[in-house]
Design brief:
The protein is α/β, with parallel strands linked by helices and 571 residues long. It is 22% helix and 19% strand. It contains 13 helices and 24 strands. It has a 7-stranded parallel beta sheet, with helices on both faces. A 7-stranded mixed beta sheet has the order 12-11-17-13-14-15-16. Strands 3-4 form a two-stranded antiparallel sheet.
């Protein structure tokens, strides 16, 4: 599936320097409907395109108009920051053997839709971002004939009629092109997301069931931990040092006295900010090895790797401390460049992932779904810094582990491309509906997905939408909630948008305001109440369409919130 799909890229999306996006295994023809081109520019020529990368364009008239004397540092579709390289290889990268981040997550890498074709549209520059360039790039992608637009960026605090992504994605939706977008990285505050646009897909970020590195005690006990130290350092069978004065790990002077004596166990179970200070002290003291203790969920979202150290959980730390106290000469080893999968619980809502409700229009529940976004391995610009050892060794890499809703968005975009290939007749709303109604609200322990922004809580739909994306189930959703362009206009009319504001979004006079309605045929429901409201009635009207094989009977089953009564008619 996806062999004939073309997917447009997100901000700064083009190929990395000196590395070619190879087209091994791709058919040697492009889709008949494809009208795009490979645009030459600085350090970029047409030979860099092939049967995988079938288009590359760049849009800079807006940024030049806003800064008439500007000199663009890379005036072409070439990626200078790695963001576009990473996201585009996530959505549709070809198979690559032996990919890793300095030995971590090693294996065969591929995008979600590895046989899809890529077209890149660079609309953001180191010199600035202008809405006109974003709008021009998206409009061109639609005209070129893409099937999916993956855009890992957004505009904050702007109404729909001033948001270039909202305007361009309306045109995309009209032509059956689904726009998949990132929710933003301003979590865990509520109401912090962007791209809360009713006619596109808004994707939240979740963690992955994977961790890196291990602590091995002298008694043979192995504890999976967390490290990204970018080398296979030999920290083998060293004394494990644990005492009250040293293990506070809050003094370079104290740590320096024992730096060469062994592995220091830093026993301070505090937040990530304080632990970062501990790591700084350990780095300055040039320790042979260090073990930090933390249950902070932020560790799953940020790289740790300047010194030969590892982080373990507070629960695992109990047995480590017990071992260190019970032995006259306790020893330990830290194993780097190891990967462990099947970690539980996972996924969880990433703490940084922006939450709903949508400032654009809170009456549509956003985000829609959650996809993997934390420590995603994908291609990167090999001329940029990806890791450091201490403060003076800077390391580049062909691959990088990055976290953000920018990384979650292309996972969903790739699934959309696969669904589009399997169901070419489905509308953008139908595909989004299939993803939402089949998403899973449960983690790999079969409990509700947790929220790392609020560690004691389960994640609400304002954090994860309907839950974790499930590509296989989305192929056969049974019922869908479809919507037409006029349905979205009816919503805008109900919002009392002026004729001019609506026309700014639709760019067409073919729509009318005869039937304004807040009942958008959306596959989720949201209603607002306050603590002063004793009794309130809210009715939602929806129309479902059977896309399964043949007639079917469905029966509604409701799990209702406490103190609420929910009924479905017909049942």
């Amino acid at each position: 599936m996806g062999g004939s799909r073309s997917v447009s890229g997100s901000e700064r999306e083009s190929q990395p320097r000196t590395k070619k996006i190879h087209d091994d295994g791709m058919t040697k023809t492009t889709p008949n409907k494809w009208k795009g081109t490979c645009e030459e520019g600085q350090d970029f020529n047409t030979s860099m395109c092939n049967f995988k990368l079938i288009g590359a364009r760049y849009f800079n008239k807006g940024v030049i108009a806003a800064n008439p004397n500007v000199t663009l540092s890379m005036n072409s579709a070439r990626d200078t920051e790695g963001h576009g390289t990473h996201t585009s290889s996530t959505v549709a990268g070809n198979y690559v053997s032996g990919a890793s981040f300095f030995g971590y997550a090693k294996g065969v890498a591929r995008g979600i839709a590895p046989k899809a074709r890529l077209a890149m549209y660079k609309v953001v520059w180191e010199e600035g971002r202008v809405a006109a360039d974003v709008l021009a790039g998206m409009d061109q992608a639609i005209a070129d004939g893409v099937d999916v637009i993956s855009i890992s960026m957004g505009f904050d605090d702007v109404p729909l009629y001033e948001d270039p992504i909202a305007i361009a994605s309306f045109a995309a939706m009209e032509k059956g092109v689904l726009v998949s977008s990132s929710a933003g990285n301003y979590g865990p505050d509520f109401g912090s997301l962007h791209n809360g646009i009713p006619w596109l897909l808004t994707v939240a970020a979740g963690t992955i069931d994977r961790t890196f590195g291990a602590l091995v005690l002298g008694n043979g006990q192995t504890i999976a931990g967390w490290t990204l130290f970018p080398a296979n350092a030999i920290v083998e069978n060293l004394p494990l040092i644990y005492n009250k004065n040293i293990s506070a790990c809050n003094s370079v002077k104290v740590l320096s006295k024992v730096a060469t004596h062994g592995i220091i166990l830093c026993d301070t179970k505090l937040d990530t900010v304080f632990m970062s200070k501990q790591m700084w002290f350990a780095d300055k003291a040039s320790l042979l090895g260090a073990v930090f203790i933390s249950d902070s969920p932020l560790l799953d979202d940020t790289g740790i790797g300047r010194s030969p150290s590892i982080v373990i959980s507070a629960q695992d730390a109990q047995s480590v401390i017990k071992y260190a106290k019970s032995q006259k000469k306790p020893t330990a080893s830290i194993k780097f460049q190891q990967t462990f999968v099947g970690i539980k619980p996972a996924p969880a809502a990433a703490s940084y992932s922006s939450r709903g409700p949508s400032p654009s229009y809170p009456g549509v529940l956003k985000p829609d779904i959650m996809a993997p976004g934390s420590n995603v391995l994908a291609a990167f610009n090999p001329h940029l810094e990806t890791a450091t050892i201490s403060t003076n060794v800077i390391l580049p890499s062909d691959y990088n582990l990055l976290s953000g809703t920018s990384m979650a968005c292309p996972h969903a975009s790739g699934v959309v491309a696969l669904l589009k290939a399997a169901h070419p007749q489905w509308s953008a709303a139908a595909i989004r509906s299939a993803l939402v109604t089949t998403a899973s609200p449960l983690d790999n322990t079969q409990n509700p997905i947790r929220d790392y922004g609020y560690p004691s809580q389960y994640a609400s739909p304002l954090a994860i939408g309907a839950g974790q994306i499930d590509p296989n189930k989305a192929l056969d959703p049974g019922l869908i909630y479809d919507a037409t362009p006029q349905d979205y206009v009816n919503l805008l009319c109900a919002l009392n948008y002026t004729k001019k504001q609506i026309l700014t979004i639709t760019r067409s006079t073919s729509y009318n305001c005869f039937k304004p309605s807040f009942d958008l045929n959306y596959p989720s429901f949201i209603a607002f109440y306050n603590n002063k409201t004793r009794s309130v009635f809210h009715q939602f009207r929806r129309t479902v369409t059977n896309v399964g094989n043949g007639p079917a009977t469905y029966r509604a089953k409701v799990t209702q919130p406490k103190s609420f009564v929910v009924t479905v008619s017909p049942t």
